[in-house]
Design goal:
Number of domains: 2
Radius of gyration: 35 Å
CATH superfamily of the largest domain: Immunoglobulins
Helix content: 25-40%
Number of strands: 8
Order of helices and strands: HHHEEEEEEEE
CATH topology of the largest domain: Immunoglobulin-like
Strand content: 25-35%
Oligomer: single chain
Shape: globular
Number of helices: 3
Length: 166
């Protein structure tokens, strides 16, 4: 019986010591042989990658990794939108719309309202920070904002009002 216990004891002691040595030795050898890409992925033959127990990657996957990080950074630093009020005086009962770079210059996209019936038409939009050109369309006639002091010339040779949101 002593022979059987002696035979089992060295076998049990040898297995735990051998298992970690096999797992760590090929990983270290593969990491030294396989070049690393910019994204830190292991690039090499499939057997080297499998031996290192690393997830195989292609050049495309390595190239996409930095782009994913840039997208997260861009989203975090993306400018927030701001509520902006527009108003213009026109005859009571007029049809007044707001058109601009923010809605593709659609002359009927955003109708303005005269809530009090005094001829002051208003609307509010949520716009991203930046420079926005716009005009009012009053009874089908395109008009620059008479209260706006910041104007730019457009391709038609007329003026667009400019609102800086920031």
């Amino acid at each position: 019986m002593a022979t059987k216990k002696t035979a089992k004891t060295p076998a049990k002691a040898a297995k735990p010591a051998a298992a970690p040595a096999k797992a760590t030795k090929p990983a270290a050898a593969s990491a030294k042989k396989a070049p690393a890409s910019k994204a830190g992925c292991v690039v090499g033959t499939a057997d080297k990658v499998a031996a290192a127990k690393a997830k195989p990657c292609t050049e495309t996957a390595c190239a996409e990794a930095p782009a994913a990080k840039a997208t997260k950074t861009t989203k975090a630093s993306a400018p927030k939108s701001v509520r902006v009020a527009f108003s213009v005086r026109a005859e009571v009962g007029s049809k007044v719309f707001l058109a601009g770079s923010f809605n593709g210059w659609d002359p009927t996209a955003k109708q303005m309202t005269d809530k009090d019936g005094t001829g002051v038409f208003t609307c509010t939009l949520t716009l991203p920070k930046g420079k926005h050109e716009y005009k009012f369309v009053i009874n089908g006639i395109w008009c620059a904002d008479p209260e706006c002091t910041d104007w730019v010339q457009n391709d038609m040779g007329t003026l667009n009002s400019v609102k800086i949101v920031g």
